[in-house]
Amino acid sequence: MPRFLRxxxxxxxxxxxxxxxxxxxxFGGGARPAWADNASDLAMARLAMARRDYAGALPTLxxxxxxxxxxxxxxxxxxxxxxxxxxxxxxxxxxxLRQAAEKGNAQAQVGLAVLYDQGSNGLPKDPAExxxxxxxxxxxxxxxxxxxxxxxxxxxxxxxKNVAEAVRLYTLGARQGDPAGQTNLGWMYQNxxxxxxxxxExxxxxxxxxxxxxxRAQGQMGAIYLAGVGVxxxxxxxxxxxxxxxxRGWVPAQFxxxxxxxxxxxxxxxxxxxxxxxxxxADGGEQGAIALLAQMxxxxxxxPKDPAExxxxxAKLPPDQRPGPxxx
Length: 328
Description:
Low-confidence stretches: 1-32, 324-328
Signal peptide: 1-36
Order of helices and strands: HHHHHHHHHHHHHHHHHH
Structural class: mainly alpha
Radius of gyration: 25 Å
Helix content: 55-70%
Keywords: Signal
Strand content: under 5%
Mean pLDDT: 89
Organism: Nitrospirillum viridazoti CBAmc
Number of strands: 0
Number of helices: 18
InterPro entries: Sel1-like, Sel1_AlgK, TPR-like_helical_dom_sf
Shape: globular
Distance between the termini: 81 Å
Largest sheet: none
Protein name: Sel1 repeat family protein
């Protein structure tokens, strides 16, 4: 096998085309079809991008895109969208993304759907169009498309609400190892939504996703170990998972960890650490953390006594959660 091909096959990204590479090997000794040459050129261009040689990759990718290669269009979307070796050009990036999606590239369909979901890059917020694009990718077996379409069915966003279909799609994504699919499916099992309640299965799915570094699943692991739901209650293990998620900015885990430090549950009581994590959670909008901090400042318990700060914090809470007489 030529050296350049061994390198390309080793360093290909997830966008690699294994069937094209197999055919490329088969034709190694004789005349090769044009698409096999394109696959080789695309592999080398991706290898150049992996090495951050964007100037070296750009001419090949542009030529391939002009020949209708959807994979090259996806790479050009990255180059122009992120300004990799060229000035940022969101219009050009979006044009390449649209072309790739229209040619049936599942990654491009998902990327374009995300923009419609967010209403960003000059596109209107359009849940129905996002769901349509996710379905195109999901029907090709794309895990991200399956899970994202599942979310739309679970929430009735752009499609009629269909919890059973959401479970089916989350399951497909989870079986491919998609951490969002594993986490979403775990949530369904934890709450008995569309499936019989099964906390043990929920815990198993959360752990699969958390072990991949998926922050939301790490936070869920902290929550279930703290509550003893689906696992044996273990505040020390809860603190370990909560710390992982909290350090990565997951607000519910910051609140949980702050509460653990305040109570000395699973960790040594530490008012400074409690205050640190509760403030981070409060800054992230966690109402439970805001209310607890206000109480701490008002009473001088775990924080300096500061009635003005307590009032400032309570002003952030919805009116029905503030202390005092309620309107009748």
